[in-house]
Amino acid sequence: MIRAGIVGLGWWGKTLVESVSGSTDLIRFVAGATRTPTPEVAEFAGLHGFTMKEDYADLLADAEVDAVVLATPHSMHSEQVVAAAEAGKHVFCEKPFALTKADAQRAVDATQRAGVALGLGFNRRLHPEMTKLRERIRSGALGTIMHVEATMTFPNALLLTPDRWRADRSETPCGGLTPMGVHAVDGMIDLCGEVEEVYCQSFRRAVEIDADDTTSVLFRMKDGMSGYLGTMTATGGGFSFQVFGSSGYVRLEGMTHIAGTPSEERRSRLFGTCIFKPAQGPAETWQAESYDVSRAILEAFARAAAGGAEFPITLDEMVHGAAVTEAIVRSADTHIPQEVS
Length: 341
Prior knowledge:
Distance between the termini: 39 Å
Oligomer: single chain
Strand order of the largest sheet: 14-13-12-11-7-10-9-8-15
CATH class of the largest domain: Alpha Beta
């Protein structure tokens, strides 16, 4: 059993705690820390049986904590991962891992020097439908892969006030990219390999905060496929991920993590209708099973921290994902395509 500390107890930090509370023998939360302690947070900690620490440093100093789980603002991730590694703690970081390749590499290097496990919160990668899609591609059942695309939307930015960290343009560049779109970018890397070049346009249409709400990105993969990602943060919630091959396409539909929806729904019902349309013949349609991807990703991290199976996202993929994020933001700023370093 890995004894973990949760750092950041906003709505998503609480969701992570709820995903494993009383439902797994691999990991449990024994401590917590947050920048904004409130009676509600204290009540939540008591309900789930963990102790609140004064701050992150206090949590890292606790010998009863084996690992930390970071549900904190993106710009803090690199420093916090390094601090956890230097304290000898395994560390799980919510996405995005970092906003630049250099910060991601520095964090990875620190965990390697310390010999601690590093996990990253791209939980959709572990859903059974993504596993089946990966197997279709690698077996050749979809033929030559030509294009991959995703659209991710939610209304969350309509509810943000200027004092929330997610309303800070420096924390959430390109609107829905960091809260949602990086999941799709990780899926593209997983299924199609590294990204070579990106072009992004991003702007504000509907929200009152100083943040983009409409973002679209074109991709060129190193192996030759094209790609597209669209995110919107001020409309109805939805998710689609589609891979087109010369033998047919697979389309996965579902929902996004909409603030205010029940925790179980946010964790377990992200995938819904699935379609396989061969190049010739009728389409096959089915419904994805309910599957708690948040618990699955934390359990995968716990196994790695305990010396078991390696975490399913490689360190190279973590760093490359940050490099892609950096290139997308740079393209939005310059209005020209950018190579991924």
